[in-house]
Design goal:
Elements lengths: L3 H9 L8 E2 L11 H8 L3 E2 L21 E2 L4 E2 L3 E2 L4 E2 H5 L11 H14 L6 E2 L14 H13 L7 H7 L4
Parallel strand pairs: 1-2, 2-5, 6-7
Antiparallel strand pairs: 3-4
Helix pairs in contact: 1-2, 4-5
Protein backbone atom coordinates (compact mmCIF):
# COMPACT_ATOMS: atom_id res chain seq x y z
CA UNK A 1 0.00 0.00 0.00
CA UNK A 2 2.98 2.31 0.47
CA UNK A 3 5.63 0.88 -1.85
CA UNK A 4 5.08 1.15 -5.60
CA UNK A 5 8.24 -0.84 -6.37
CA UNK A 6 7.18 -3.78 -4.23
CA UNK A 7 3.68 -3.80 -5.72
CA UNK A 8 5.20 -3.73 -9.22
CA UNK A 9 7.40 -6.73 -8.31
CA UNK A 10 4.42 -8.67 -6.97
CA UNK A 11 2.39 -7.90 -10.09
CA UNK A 12 5.31 -8.89 -12.34
CA UNK A 13 5.59 -12.22 -10.50
CA UNK A 14 2.11 -13.07 -11.79
CA UNK A 15 3.51 -13.34 -15.31
CA UNK A 16 0.92 -12.99 -18.04
CA UNK A 17 -1.95 -12.75 -15.56
CA UNK A 18 -2.80 -9.05 -15.33
CA UNK A 19 -5.10 -8.34 -12.41
CA UNK A 20 -7.33 -5.31 -12.81
CA UNK A 21 -8.52 -5.24 -9.21
CA UNK A 22 -6.81 -4.87 -5.87
CA UNK A 23 -7.46 -4.97 -2.14
CA UNK A 24 -4.59 -4.57 0.27
CA UNK A 25 -4.39 -7.05 3.13
CA UNK A 26 -5.38 -5.61 6.52
CA UNK A 27 -7.10 -2.82 4.56
CA UNK A 28 -3.80 -0.91 4.58
CA UNK A 29 -4.35 2.57 3.18
CA UNK A 30 -2.14 5.64 3.58
CA UNK A 31 -4.06 8.56 2.04
CA UNK A 32 -0.85 10.36 1.10
CA UNK A 33 0.77 7.38 -0.64
CA UNK A 34 -1.59 4.52 -1.48
CA UNK A 35 -3.53 6.22 -4.31
CA UNK A 36 -0.28 7.06 -6.09
CA UNK A 37 0.98 3.48 -5.63
CA UNK A 38 -2.22 2.12 -7.18
CA UNK A 39 -2.10 4.61 -10.05
CA UNK A 40 1.55 3.84 -10.78
CA UNK A 41 0.80 0.10 -10.80
CA UNK A 42 -1.96 0.61 -13.37
CA UNK A 43 -4.67 -0.95 -11.20
CA UNK A 44 -8.14 -0.56 -12.72
CA UNK A 45 -10.05 -0.70 -9.45
CA UNK A 46 -9.40 -1.10 -5.75
CA UNK A 47 -11.58 -2.08 -2.78
CA UNK A 48 -9.30 -1.37 0.17
CA UNK A 49 -11.05 1.75 1.44
CA UNK A 50 -13.03 0.33 4.35
CA UNK A 51 -12.72 -0.08 8.10
CA UNK A 52 -11.27 -3.12 9.83
CA UNK A 53 -12.67 -2.19 13.24
CA UNK A 54 -16.27 -1.50 12.22
CA UNK A 55 -18.58 -1.59 9.22
CA UNK A 56 -19.81 1.47 7.39
CA UNK A 57 -18.64 4.19 5.06
CA UNK A 58 -14.95 5.07 5.47
CA UNK A 59 -15.23 7.71 2.79
CA UNK A 60 -18.83 8.70 3.71
CA UNK A 61 -19.94 7.39 0.35
CA UNK A 62 -21.59 4.19 -0.94
CA UNK A 63 -20.84 4.53 -4.64
CA UNK A 64 -17.62 3.78 -6.53
CA UNK A 65 -15.57 6.88 -7.28
CA UNK A 66 -12.28 8.02 -8.74
CA UNK A 67 -10.09 9.35 -5.89
CA UNK A 68 -8.79 12.86 -6.41
CA UNK A 69 -5.09 13.52 -6.97
CA UNK A 70 -4.57 16.86 -5.24
CA UNK A 71 -0.98 17.18 -6.49
CA UNK A 72 -2.11 17.04 -10.13
CA UNK A 73 -5.54 18.64 -9.69
CA UNK A 74 -7.46 15.77 -11.29
CA UNK A 75 -8.85 12.33 -10.53
CA UNK A 76 -6.67 9.25 -10.46
CA UNK A 77 -7.31 6.72 -13.21
CA UNK A 78 -8.41 3.88 -10.90
CA UNK A 79 -11.89 3.33 -9.52
CA UNK A 80 -12.31 2.94 -5.76
CA UNK A 81 -15.13 0.57 -4.82
CA UNK A 82 -15.58 1.31 -1.09
CA UNK A 83 -15.61 -1.69 1.23
CA UNK A 84 -18.60 -1.66 3.61
CA UNK A 85 -18.10 -4.75 5.76
CA UNK A 86 -15.47 -7.40 6.40
CA UNK A 87 -16.27 -10.70 8.09
CA UNK A 88 -13.43 -10.38 10.63
CA UNK A 89 -14.85 -7.05 11.79
CA UNK A 90 -18.00 -8.73 13.01
CA UNK A 91 -16.52 -11.24 15.44
CA UNK A 92 -12.79 -10.64 15.93
CA UNK A 93 -11.92 -10.10 19.62
CA UNK A 94 -10.32 -6.73 18.81
CA UNK A 95 -13.34 -5.52 16.85
CA UNK A 96 -17.13 -5.81 17.28
CA UNK A 97 -17.46 -9.28 18.83
CA UNK A 98 -21.00 -9.73 17.48
CA UNK A 99 -22.81 -12.98 18.16
CA UNK A 100 -24.01 -15.05 15.19
CA UNK A 101 -27.60 -13.83 15.54
CA UNK A 102 -26.52 -10.20 15.84
CA UNK A 103 -24.74 -9.89 12.46
CA UNK A 104 -27.66 -9.18 10.13
CA UNK A 105 -29.56 -6.93 12.59
CA UNK A 106 -26.39 -4.86 13.03
CA UNK A 107 -25.79 -4.56 9.27
CA UNK A 108 -29.39 -4.03 8.13
CA UNK A 109 -29.49 -0.24 8.77
CA UNK A 110 -26.27 0.24 6.77
CA UNK A 111 -27.58 -1.96 3.96
CA UNK A 112 -30.84 0.00 3.94
CA UNK A 113 -28.86 3.25 3.63
CA UNK A 114 -26.97 1.82 0.65
CA UNK A 115 -30.28 0.75 -0.91
CA UNK A 116 -31.75 4.23 -0.31
CA UNK A 117 -29.00 5.84 -2.39
CA UNK A 118 -28.70 3.11 -5.02
CA UNK A 119 -25.19 2.40 -3.81
CA UNK A 120 -22.88 -0.58 -3.89
CA UNK A 121 -22.74 -2.92 -0.88
CA UNK A 122 -19.23 -4.35 -0.86
CA UNK A 123 -18.75 -7.38 1.38
CA UNK A 124 -15.41 -9.05 2.10
CA UNK A 125 -15.82 -12.61 3.32
CA UNK A 126 -12.58 -14.58 3.68
CA UNK A 127 -12.43 -18.16 2.37
CA UNK A 128 -11.87 -19.73 5.80
CA UNK A 129 -15.18 -18.28 6.98
CA UNK A 130 -17.12 -20.45 4.56
CA UNK A 131 -16.25 -23.49 6.68
CA UNK A 132 -19.57 -24.95 7.96
CA UNK A 133 -17.93 -25.40 11.38
CA UNK A 134 -17.71 -21.61 11.72
CA UNK A 135 -20.99 -20.73 13.41
CA UNK A 136 -20.03 -17.18 14.35
CA UNK A 137 -19.16 -15.35 11.12
CA UNK A 138 -19.42 -18.28 8.78
CA UNK A 139 -21.58 -19.40 5.90
CA UNK A 140 -24.91 -18.95 7.71
CA UNK A 141 -24.21 -15.29 8.41
CA UNK A 142 -22.98 -14.76 4.84
CA UNK A 143 -26.14 -16.36 3.45
CA UNK A 144 -28.31 -14.17 5.70
CA UNK A 145 -26.61 -11.04 4.34
CA UNK A 146 -26.93 -12.25 0.73
CA UNK A 147 -30.58 -13.15 1.36
CA UNK A 148 -31.27 -9.64 2.68
CA UNK A 149 -29.64 -8.13 -0.40
CA UNK A 150 -31.46 -10.48 -2.79
CA UNK A 151 -34.77 -9.74 -1.04
CA UNK A 152 -34.20 -6.03 -1.58
CA UNK A 153 -33.50 -6.39 -5.30
CA UNK A 154 -29.71 -6.05 -5.24
CA UNK A 155 -27.84 -6.75 -8.46
CA UNK A 156 -24.78 -8.90 -7.80
CA UNK A 157 -21.60 -7.82 -9.63
CA UNK A 158 -17.93 -8.65 -9.48
CA UNK A 159 -15.40 -5.88 -8.99
CA UNK A 160 -14.44 -6.17 -12.63
CA UNK A 161 -18.08 -5.76 -13.72
CA UNK A 162 -18.49 -2.67 -11.55
CA UNK A 163 -15.25 -1.23 -12.97
CA UNK A 164 -16.48 -1.86 -16.52
CA UNK A 165 -19.71 0.07 -15.84
CA UNK A 166 -17.88 3.27 -14.87
CA UNK A 167 -16.30 5.49 -17.51
CA UNK A 168 -12.62 6.23 -16.96
CA UNK A 169 -11.70 9.36 -15.07
Amino acid sequence: AENAGRLAQELAALGTLVPRGNRFHYLCWDPSRTPGVLAQAGVGYDSTLGFAEHFGFRHSYCLPFFPFDFARGRAYGFLEVPLNVMDATLHHPHYLQLGPDDVLPALAPMLAEIEKFGGVATVLWHNQNFDPANAVNGPRQFHEIMGWLRGHGAAFRTGREIWAEFPAA
